Design the sequence.
């Protein structure tokens, strides 16, 4: 059974509503968004990591016209290609920027992401099917109408990034 959810890429000024199956994986949703946005004013595409294909490695959004922030700023962004590839663009950066997703319900309560398993901080592969995914506060990992998937770049420190030995200033 299909439900309508929202898909958003923070900082890339891309968002849309999309019909998905309740049991779709996050990757299934990404594939549907990529297919449905092909040729539109804002076109989404993605690639999994090469060595760990269960994780997302790259998002590209092509804006053929100006994009307006959906936040209160009302900022306008130029047409062009907005892309981040974990493997290529990080190139020994500290912090590294990595893609991470979160799932929220219609009341903006966090259902998934790094908090999905509160007893362990772990990142959940975007290929996990609903039966294995689980959502906080729900008996299953199935999508419901008006859920929202948000992709965002997060900074992860790979070691000290200030000063001398052991991070001393």
Sequence:
């Amino acid at each position: 059974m299909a439900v309508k959810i929202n898909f958003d890429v923070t900082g890339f000024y891309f968002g849309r509503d999309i019909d998905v199956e309740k049991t779709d994986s996050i990757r299934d949703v990404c594939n549907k968004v990529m297919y449905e946005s092909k040729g539109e004013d804002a076109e989404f595409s993605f690639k999994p990591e090469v060595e760990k294909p269960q994780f997302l490695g790259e998002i590209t959004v092509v804006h053929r016209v100006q994009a307006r922030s959906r936040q209160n700023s009302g900022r306008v962004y130029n047409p062009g290609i907005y892309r981040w590839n974990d493997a290529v663009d990080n190139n020994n950066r500290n912090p590294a920027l990595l893609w991470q997703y979160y799932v929220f319900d219609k009341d903006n309560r966090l259902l998934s992401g790094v908090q999905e398993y509160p007893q362990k901080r772990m990142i959940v592969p975007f290929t996990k099917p609903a039966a294995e995914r689980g959502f906080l506060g729900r008996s299953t990992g199935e999508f419901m109408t008006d859920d929202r998937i948000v992709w965002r770049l997060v900074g992860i420190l790979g070691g000290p990034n200030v000063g001398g030995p052991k991070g001393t200033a």
